[in-house]
Amino acid sequence: MTDTRKKLFNTLRNEGGAVIILVAVSLVMLAGMTALAVDLSYRHVVRNELQNIADAAALAGARQLGVLYPDSYQDQQNYDVVATGGRDQIVGVIQQTADKNQAGAKLGISIPSGDIHIGLWDFSTRTFTEASLQPDAVKVIARRDDTANSPIGTFFASVFGIDSMSIVAEATAALSGQSTAEPGELELPIGISKSWFDEHAGDGDDYCGKTIKFSPSTDPDACAGWNTFDDDPANDNKVRDILDGIITNNETTADSIFEYINGDLSANTFEALMTAFQVKGHDVTFQYDPNNPQAIPQPVAAGEHGEPLYDTDGTTQLQYPPCQGGSGCTGELRYSHEWPTTVTVYDSDDCTPNGSIRVAGFAQVVVYDVGAPSNKTVAARIECDYVDSEPTRGGGGNYGKKGSIPGLVD
Fold it and tell me: First and final CA of the chain: distance in angstroms?
């Protein structure tokens, strides 16, 4: 063999050896990466399972919060979830929910009390703040780490010195604006303009407790209209049938289309409104004064009456049905009276709506003044931070009334 051929053979032999070493190293690295990919995929699966547990637990806890809220609006304004023992009940529901599920082949996930937070959810900034007074949200942290449930073991990553991996999942569920009205819930066939809420949202105290006029429609404080639910065309007779209970609403959701009629009611329909006001409302300790919104009248005891209501002369007590007194007057005496009820919020800036308009959401109002058919005055105040005692879904616009069935927000 010549020297040239020897050199070529040695070169090829050396390069072949280098290739073998390179292939061997590559195979080790490829096997390691494949092993690591298997463990990372498993981690992803377990994290999804933990996230599902956190979601379910947060929803269960927030639903329990909605159930625990007092029925009375006044009691709700001072509701403290810790002082009343509600937090312990919510923690119990969350832990029971998590214990029925598994993550990474571990059946029964434990959620420590310290990983359960109750507070307030800000929909505009999408932030959670822990609080015990009037809470509307529950945040849950589900773990598989050294704190709870132990980290998950690895299959092949131990080759790289990774024997276990920690996983944490978080979820927040909150009570939000009512999005569904049950059949028959809308006893007062009226809607408030969404723009009225937008206009007052910039005030220091928002729109809570503010007075809105439903009638007369020309009043500067009026920005609402009568509706006949989805019955087209809207007219005064249909409004009267609703007030008389002849027509009731079907299940109504935000995005439903309602038919509106502007202007004031006829005398006969206004009389039906007075009947509904007297029958469906209740007497209170004194008449609400919009100039003193902090003073909220309270319902009187059964069989008792609050402050008598007098005619403009200040001496003749008003009666119902309205009459002028004397031998022809057979009505009942009137006293300070209120009617809490749900109304729609319509998606329009028009304060004298007419025709077909989308339902944007729902609001809780307290009608406190219904005058005689001669003046057709109807006034109400808006209630805020009110959680419906009935199982009502959230997810609607923020107009003061919240559904007791929560949704995930984070």
Answer: 78
